Amino acid sequence: MHILELFKHLVESKSETPDDGNLLDFIEKYLADFTAKRIDIEDTKNLFIYKKFGEGEHLCFAGHVDVVPAGEGWSTNPYELVEKDGYLYGRGTQDMKSGVAAFIQAVSEVKEFDGTLSLLLTSDEEGEATFGTIKVLEYLKETKQLPDAVVVAEPTCEESFGDAIKVGRRGSINGYLTLRGKQGHAAYPEKSINPIHNISKVLGNIADVNIDDGDEFFSPSKFVITDVRSGMQVTNVTPNELKMMFNVRNTTLTTQKEVTMFVQKHFSGLDYELKLTQGSYPFCTNTDTKIVKSIDKAIEKVTDIKPKHSTAGGTSDARFVAQFGIDVIEFGVKNDTIHAINERTTAKEVKDLYKVFKELITIYEGKK
């Protein structure tokens, strides 16, 4: 298949999380000369497929074949790749079947490589991700097959193709705070403790406030309040307690300890309970590593653009890769319509991404 024919097949295979749309079986057949291992768990489908060409380093391309639901209001069929006004429309065109198509085609054409090339694919990145990439990595650790470097082909570019790669991601700390008071009659406020009044004195000092100053790669860790609720929906009773939820997209400079200390500082003297959970942990790949330098050269060779190194955005499966001490970066097409109605990319971006990955494989091997 040509790269765009492959891309069309992927987009038109409906694979809403955790359904893989039979794509992992298709990829196994497409890369028939690679060795495949399926690590399916419950309703999540996972594939690790590799080819050892030599005794050198192991370079892995990772991604997901699942997509979010299409939603209503599309101008085209979301599960048909439609070319219109210079764009290719379809669910997953940006996130991330363009990336998957590009690296499948790139590795399928490799004849020589001084090491191992592999793909790691899951059908549950857009969902809970409990049985997806993390389970494959655990298997690879057990079997001593962990790669030296991983490229996750998530959409990363901002204004033009080639302008940004992700060298890291922020973490995500979720907070649940209960502020206790003493219920009473609104006419006798002196006999009660109103948690709404108490938090009103605090909110201005915590809402949208930076916990750290960030650094070269990370914007500051910001305290973002997402929900505040209290009361009995009556006008004559003050509430007994108040519940607040918040999120901190944290840098490597802030941990749960710093968030706890921040809350303690501002809620000192108040009766409260705090619970924190961590959805993901921050990481940053050293920009002097081989994989970062190689992808930079490959992008510049294809696009004449020197990409910036970014950590912006939400989370991806790269966070799991980083936990295993593996150098990981992300690079893909523009991400301006991901998860949106009428998601779209261009044929040129898909073809250029394939070219970048072809160049990357050669550069990483040390032949350029």
What is the compact description of this entry?
With about 375 residues, the chain is α+β, with helices and mostly antiparallel strands. About 25% of the residues lie in helices and about 25% in strands. Helix 1 packs across helix 3.
Overview of this structure, please?
This protein has about 375 residues and is α+β, with helices and mostly antiparallel strands. The chain has 9 helices and 20 strands. It folds into 2 domains: about 5-170 and about 280-365, Aminopeptidase (3-Layer(aba) Sandwich), CATH 3.40.630; about 170-280, Alpha-Beta Plaits (2-Layer Sandwich), CATH 3.30.70.360. Helix content is about 25%, strand content about 25%. The chain has a 6-stranded mixed beta sheet. A 5-stranded antiparallel beta sheet has the order 12-13-15-10-16, with helices on one face. It has a 3-stranded antiparallel beta sheet with strand order 4-5-20. α3 (about 95-110) packs across α9. The radius of gyration is 24 Å and the shape is elongated. The chain starts with a helix and ends with a helix.
What are the main properties of this structure?
27% helix; single chain; five-stranded antiparallel beta sheet; 20 strands; six-stranded mixed beta sheet; Alpha-Beta Plaits; alpha+beta; elongated; 368 residues; 9 helices; Aminopeptidase; 2 domains
